[in-house]
Amino acid sequence: MSTLPAILHPELLADDGADSIVRDGRRLDHAEGASKPLRSRPEPQPRGAKVHGNRPIDQAEAAARFIAAPEHEKMHDERLWDLRQKRDREMYGIAEWEELRSLASAIKEHTLTHLDQYLEEFEANARSNGIHVHWARDAAEHNQIVHGILKDHGAKSLIKSKSMLTEECGFRHYMASVGIEVIETDLGERIQQLDNEDPSHVVVPAVHKLRTDVAEVFARTIGTDSANSDVHYLAEAQREATRPLILAADAGMTGCNFAVAETGGVTVCTNEGNADLSANVPKLHIAAIGIEKIIPRIEHLAVFVRLLSRSALGSPITQYTSHFRGPREGGEMHFVLVDNGRSARLGMEEFWTSLKCIRCGACMNTCPVYRRSGGLSYGATYSGPIGLIIDPTFNAHKYSNLPFASTLNGSCSNVCPVKINIHEQIYAWRRVLVERHETPLAKRIEMKAAGELLSRPAAYRAAIAAADVALAHLPRFVIYNGLNAWGRHREVPHPPKQTFHSWYQANRGEKK
Amino acid sequence: MSSRDDILASVRANLPRVDRPLPTVPLFDDHPPASLLEAFKKSLHQMGGIFLDPPASGDTLAPVRAKIASAKIVCSTAPEIAGNRDITGVGVPQDLADVDFAIVRASFAVAETGSVLLTEADLQVNAVAYLAQHLIVLLDPADVVVNLHHAYRRPEFRARHYASFHTGPSATADIEGVLIHGAQGARSLSVMPMARLPAPTDANRTLGRAAI
User: Fold this and answer.
1) Smallest CA–CA separation between A53 and chain B, in Å?
2) What is the mean pLDDT of chain A?
3) How many structural domains are present in chain A?
4) A446 and A430, same structural domain?
5) How far apart are CA A453 and CA A366, in angstroms?
6) Which of A113, A158, A264, A265 is deepest in the core (most CB within 10 A)?
7) Is the pLDDT of residue A1 over 70?
8) Average pLDDT in the A56-74 region?
9) Is the pLDDT of residue A2 over 70?
10) Does A40 touch chain B (CB under 8 A)?
C-alpha cells in the first residue's frame, strides 16, 4: 500500500463541480473520468523528446522541460495518480483479484509457449468465418497490405480506432504518403493527430495536454473559438466535426485487444464506441492484430476483460467491449496478423514475458518517473515502464537511455494485471545495454570505476571515508554542478562524521 | 517463403522451452448478489447508464414513451414498441445518421458490470446502436447473469458475427479527466426491464435458452 496522499496537488481541486455529471447525488467517474473535479491554469505546452535520427533519445532532457511547466506536470501527475487510486478501489472490490492476475499471467504464458499452434487455429477459424487473413513480417509489410486492401476497394478515406500497433508501424505517416486520408476517431488520439503529435499514453493519448492546449489545437484545426476551453464544448465540437467524416469514410480500421483462437474472432475495447462506428458504418473493416494478442478460448476473455479496464482506469469495464467474429451481411472483414519483432522477442530468455502485456497502462499511471516527465519524453511508441523494456527490442541504440529512466521501485510490477516482472526486466536491460556498450561514455566510466571499487573492500572503505571528508568540506559549486547528476534536483545528505566501518571497528571490533 | 510461413517458422524457432500448462478458470460465483437485477442496476448507474424503473401503474412502456415523446426519429427493432423509421428498409448504415432514439432488446445482461449484450440479431443494422443519439434497451429480468465468466459461457459468442457489451453510454474523459457522455456514439443509454413477448419463433429466445 502506498503512503502517498489521495490528492498530490490540492491546489488543482476545482471549487465547483461545474464540469461534473451528477446522478442520484453522486458524481460519476467511470471511464477515464477523474474522481475529483480538477482545474489547471493556462501555460504553453512543453513538447516531447527531440528525435535526431538514430541518436539515443535524451529522456532526461525532455523530462526536465516537462517539469519546468508546473501546470502540465501537476495535472499529469494528479490525473494518473487518480487513475491508480481508482484502480485500487476496483481491486479491493473483487475478492479474487490476485487469482485473476495469476490466471491471466498463466494463460498468456501458456499461449506464448504454444503460439504457433494457436496462431494456426485462429487463422483457420477466422477463414472459415469468411474473414480474409493476412500476415505481415514487419511494419512496412503491414502498411503495404492495408494499402493494398484499400486500393482494391478504391478507398480514399479510412476511419480508425486507436491501435498502438498502427502507431508502431508509422501507419498514418505511410498512408499520408500514398494519398489516403486517415481519421482517428478516439477523442484523445484525434487531438494528437490534429496536433501532429504521437500519443503520450497507451490508454489516454492526450493526458499530457491541458484543456487550453486542446482549445488551441481545435481552434487551429476544426474552427472552435480559441478563447473557449470548456471541455464539454470542445468534446461536442469534435463530435460534430468527426461525424460527417465517419459517415463519408470508405473503410474502417480497428486494433485488437484479444484474438480468440477458438472462434477466430477479435475483441476490441473502447469507451467512446468509436471502434464500433469504424467497423460497422463502412462496408470494409480491417483489424490490425499483433501476434501476441492471441488467447486460446472464449472463457479466457472473462479473465482479461475483468482486469483490463479496472487496471487501466479503475472502471469496471470499458463502455463498449465488442466481439467481431465475421463480416456483416454485404460487408468484408480483413485481419492483418503482425510480427514486427515479436517472434524474435519470444526467443529472448529474460524478456519474452513482456509479450504478455495487454496495454492497460497501469504501470505508467503508477510510475513516479512517468507521471512527472510525460509520455512524450521517451521519444518512442511505448513509454513508461513497459516502454523501457519493449522499446530497446526495436532499437537498442536509439532507446539505450530509456531503461535508466526508472527508480526500480517495483510499483509497475505490483500493479501489472498479467504479472510481468517489469522492474526486473528494466534492470536486466541495463546490464544488457552496458555489455553491448550502448550506454554513454560517462556512464560507462563511472560504472567501470564503481565496479572496480566495489570489488575491493579496502579500497571501497578508503574511498568512502575520503568522500565523506570531501563532501563535508567541498564548496557547494563543486557538489551541485552539471556533472554530478545526483546533486541536480536534490540536496546531497549531510556526510556522516564517521563511516560505519570505522564506527564498528571502534565500538564492536575489539569486543569480538 | 511466404510471410505466413516465415513468421510461424520464426515463432517456432523462438518458443520458450518451458512448461506452461493452461489453467482452469473458475466461475467465481460463490457469493452471488441477492438480486441479480438490483446488482445490475447499481453497476449500470456507476457506468453512467439509466435504469428505468417500471411504473406503479403497470404500464411498463410509459417511461419509454415519455423519453421518446419529443423525438423526431425513432427506430425500434423491438416488437414491443413501434418507431417511425423502419429498419428493414435501411439500405446502408448511413441512412440511420438522423435517428434520435433507437430501441432494441438485449440478448442478456451482466450484473457484475452493468452491461447489456447486443448482437446483429438484436440490432439488425449494427450501426444503429452507435449512430442513434440515444439508446433504449429492453431487458428481460430473467436474462441477467451474475458475472463475465457466466456471460462468456453464453452461445452468442459462438453463434453471432457481432456481439457487443454496452455498459452505459459512449463516454470519454480524454481532456483533463472531465467526463463527457456522447463522445462519438450514444449520448445516453437507458435500460427498461421488461419480459420478452412469448413468441416461440423469437430466434434470440431459442438461442439464449437452449444452451444454458
Assistant:
1) 28
2) 93
3) 2
4) no
5) 35
6) A265
7) no
8) 98
9) no
10) yes
A111 lies in the same domain as A210: yes
Residues of A in contact with B26 (CB under 8 A): 96, 99
Residue A388 three-state SS = helix
Considering the domain architecture, whether residues A469 and A404 belong to the same structural domain is answered as no
Q: Is the Cβ of A215 closer than 8 Å to some Cβ of chain B? A: no
pLDDT of residue B212: 35
Residue in the structure block whose three cell numbers are 534492470:
A427
A110 vs B contacts (CB less than 8 Å)? 20-23
HSE-CB at A402 with a 13 A cutoff on CA atoms is 34
A358, A349 contact by CB (below 8 A): no
Domain boundary among A384, A414, A439: A439
Contact (CB<8Å) A280/B16: no
Q: Are A364 and A479 part of one and the same domain?
A: no
The whole domain housing A445 covers 441-511
3-state SS record for A93-159 = CCCCHHHHHHHHHHHHHHHHHCHHHHHHHHHHHHHHCCCEEEEECCHHHHHHHHHHHHHHCCCCEEE
| Among A20, A99, A210, beta carbon nearest to B176 | A210
A157's CB contacts (< 8 A; 6+ apart) are: A180, A181, A182, A183, A245, A248, A249, A250, A251
- Residue from the list B149, B163, B186 with its beta carbon closest to the beta carbon of A302: B149
Q: What is the mean pLDDT of chain B?
A: 94
**Contact criterion met (CB < 8 Å) for A344 and B147:** no
Say if CB B177 and CB A33 are below 8 A apart. yes
Q: Tell which residue, A194, A205, A128, A136, has the closest CA to residue A164.
A: A205
**pLDDT average, residue stretch A337-365:** 98
Among A382, A407, A439, identify where a domain stops: A439
Q: Do B3 and A28 touch (CB under 8 A)?
A: no
Q: Tens digits of per-residue pLDDT, A262-275?
A: 999 999 999 999 99
Together in a domain, A465 and A422? no
- Using one digit for the tens of pLDDT, what is the confidence trace for A120-165? 999 999 999 999 999 999 999 999 999 999 999 999 999 999 999 9
Q: Do A143 and A100 share a domain, yes or no?
A: yes
Enumerate the residues of chain A whose CB falls inside 8 A of the CB of residue B127. Answer: 276-277, 280-281
Closest-CA residue in chain B for A353? Answer: B16
Strands B171-172 and B180-181, bridge-based pairing: antiparallel
If asked whether residues A20 and A127 sit together in one domain, one would say yes
CA–CA distances in Å: residue B83 to residues A97, B55, B73, B80, B100: 44, 21, 7, 10, 11
CB A189 within 8 A of CB A196: no
A240 with A136, same domain: the answer is: yes
B149 contacts in A (CB within 8 Å)?
A: 299, 302
Q: How far is it, in rounded angstroms, from Cα B134 to Cα A319?
A: 14
Domains in chain B, CATH or no CATH each:
34-170+178-210 (3.40.50.10420)
Inter-chain residue contact B173 with A34, CB threshold 8 Å? yes
Cell triple for A322: 465488442
What is the count of residue pairs from A and B with beta carbons less than 8 Å apart? 291
Distance from CA of A343 to the nearest CA of B (A): 5
CATH number (domain holding residue A127): 3.40.50.10420
Mean pLDDT in residue range A42-50? 98
Calculate the dihedral angle through the C-alpha atoms of A440, A446, A447, A453, rounding to the nearest 10 degrees.
Answer: 170
**Alpha-carbon distance A477 to nearest alpha carbon in chain B (angstroms):** 40
End-to-end CA distance of chain A: 41
Identity at B206, one-letter amino acid code: T
Q: pTM for the complete prediction? A: 0.91
